[in-house]
Each structure stands twice: as structure tokens, then as C-alpha cells.
Amino acid sequence: MRGLLWLLPLLLAACVVGVRPEPAPPPPVRPVPQTSSFVLNARLGLPPYPGSVAIKREERDGSSEAEFETRDPLEQVYAFFHNWLTSRGWVRARLEYKGPASKLEAEYRRGAERFKLELDQQGRSGRYKLEIDF
């Protein structure tokens, strides 16, 4: 038996299976931050709602349509846009809620310029549609 003990390390070495280390997991996917140049309406320079996720944006002749998602209520979303506009000299001339308080229309003026803002909360999905019409 003692004569075979020298054979044991050789047998063990032959039995060791090559173990490859697992590949490193990919880095976590982080949302791409919206740059300061991203706007919902270029004519106004209107920024996106903070923390929202942009879904769609179209612009034509200064008017625009954008869709985005946020869990915030309609009044809070509108207050952000209203405060931003009034801080740049726009004055609200009219505000009207449509439907069961899920859509609103507002008209803004600054000098001879005017536009209509429509904000529509689409169900309880957290999705909003914002239209700006000059």
C-alpha cells in the first residue's frame, strides 16, 4: 500500500477538471440622461417634465406633439409647464379642464405671440400627450 501512495498525487492531478472562471456580468444598463438640448417644443425651448420618459416627439411649423410617461398627477405635470412658461414672460389667458379632469387646455400670450397648450392624461397608465399649437 505504501508503494502506491506515490501514485495518489498523480491520479489526483489527472482527475482535476479544468475550471474556467465565469465571465464577468455585463455592466448594469443605465438610462441615458436627456441632455439639456432636448426640448418638447423647440420654438419655446420647453424642457421635458423632470423624471419623465419620452415616448414620442413631433414638431411642425413651431407647433409640436409629445408623449411621455410619469406617475405624477395631471395638476403637478401642468404646474411644472405653467411655472416654466410664466417664468419666461408668458401669461395664461385661459385654462379649461375637459372630461373627468384628465385633460386640460390653456392659452398663453406674450406680446403679439400666442399658443394653445393641451395636456391629456391618457387613462391611468402614466402616459401623457402634450400638444403645443401656435
Question: How would you describe the overall organization of this protein?
Answer:
The chain is α+β, with helices and mostly antiparallel strands and 134 residues long. The protein has one domain (36-133). The protein contains 2 helices and 6 strands. It has helices spanning 7-15, 74-86, and strands at residues 53-60, 63-69, 91-98, 103-110, 113-122, 127-133. A 6-stranded antiparallel sheet has the order 1-2-6-5-4-3, covered by helices on one side. It is elongated, with a radius of gyration of 30 Å. It starts with 6 loop residues before the first helix and ends with a strand.
How many E strands? Answer: 6
Sheet with most strands: strand arrangement: 1-2-6-5-4-3
Total discrete domains: 1
The chain-level structural class is alpha+beta
List the uncertain runs. Answer: 27-35
Strand-residue fraction? 35-45%
What form results from the Cα inertia axes?
Answer: elongated
* First-residue to last-residue Cα separation: 98 Å
The string of secondary-structure elements, in order, is HEEHEEEE
